[in-house]
Specification:
Helices cover 46% and strands 14% of the residues. It starts with a strand and ends in a 16-residue tail after the last helix. Bound molecules: nicotinamide-adenine-dinucleotide.
Length: 280
């Protein structure tokens, strides 16, 4: 298949890696050719490390990189089978991209978004590809994480869902299918749990270390909820809680006041070296 990926940040380049490793031809584009090239260079560095560790041969690395081509957004897209965007999480930005490609792609091209939280239906609204439009939600880092949430919007055809679920399996991933709802499956379950850990801490029911130890040892979670919130980014956790709360109006999704305060203080977790834990 010929795949075009728009956005070569952490997710876009990781997804390009997954498709290339499975033998697909991948074109990648970003705001500029230089940004897309920088993304491919970051991937090359990661692959070099795998070669050093003996997990990949030099030939496999070259073959994989040979499957990925940097293109500009103006380059011909008439043969593309799957257009997947992984640009920044803004509805207007993502819609502008799909609108620009809608008339340029062939009728049976599938449009997919890697959004974590936005409405699939809203992103697809008005496009001639709306029936062949869906969420293909990879997890970070894409080459390692097995799951892909395959999310249908209001107009998505059942055929498109089956085609993409089969493709995920061919990529070595496990697809789960769901209909559009705020947070889809994973974030709807996971983020409120992390939010509740913040409430426990704020109410002084237990301290940080006891909350994290409780879930590691009592629920067999590999990380405690507060350490995991730091890893995901407290701003991202808050953003998802706000979406869940706003979209459903259900008080069970009220964002924790402590979580809000941490974000306002610029304590976003690992990426700012300060969150529930210190990483300096
Ligand atoms: N990071 C995660 O853990 C994660 C996990 C799952 C899904 N997602 C989703 O994946 C998407 C991308 O996230 P990310 O973490 O890779 O972001 P990122 O900030 O690392 O990368 C975004 C890329 O998009 C590019 N971009 C922005 N506007 C563009 C445009 N108009 N045309 C082309 N390229 C453009 C940027 O230059 C950048 O390279 C978001 O929708 C996010 O919600 C992220």
């Amino acid at each position: 298949m010929l795949i075009r990926i728009i956005g070569t940040g952490a997710m876009g380049i990781g997804i390009a890696h997954v498709f290339a490793a499975a033998g697909h031809s991948v074109e990648v584009a970003d705001l500029t050719v230089e940004t897309a090239e920088a993304g491919v260079n970051r991937l090359a560095v990661q692959l070099d490390r795998q070669v050093e560790k003996g997990r990949l041969t030099e030939a496999e690395k070259s073959r994989l990189l040979g499957q990925i081509r940097v293109v500009s957004e103006d380059d011909d897209v008439s043969e593309t089978d799957l257009l997947l965007e992984a640009v920044s999480e803004t509805t207007a930005l993502k819609r502008a991209i799909f609108e620009a490609y809608d008339t340029r792609c062939k009728g049976d091209c599938i449009f997919a978004t890697n959004t974590s939280s936005l409405s699939i239906t809203e992103l697809a609204a008005g496009l001639s590809h709306a029936g062949r439009f869906l969420g293909m939600h990879f997890f970070n880092p894409p080459p390692v994480m097995k799951l892909v949430e395959v999310i249908s919007g209001e107009e998505t055809s059942a055929e498109t869902v089956s085609e993409i679920a089969a493709l995920c399996e061919q990529l070595g991933k496990t697809p789960v299918t769901c209909r559009e709802a705020p947070g889809f499956i994973v974030n709807r379950l996971l983020i409120p749990m992390l939010n509740e850990a913040c409430n426990l801490l704020e109410e002084q029911v237990a301290g940080r270390d006891d909350i994290d130890a409780a879930m590691k040892l009592g629920a067999n979670h590999p990380m405690g909820p507060l350490a995991l919130a730091d890893l995901i980014g407290l701003d991202i956790c808050l953003n998802i809680m706000e979406t869940l709360f706003l979209e459903t109006g259900d008080p069970k999704f009220r964002p924790s006041v402590l979580l809000r305060k941490m974000v306002r203080a610029g304590k976003l977790g690992r990426k700012t070296k300060r969150g529930f834990y210190d990483y300096g």
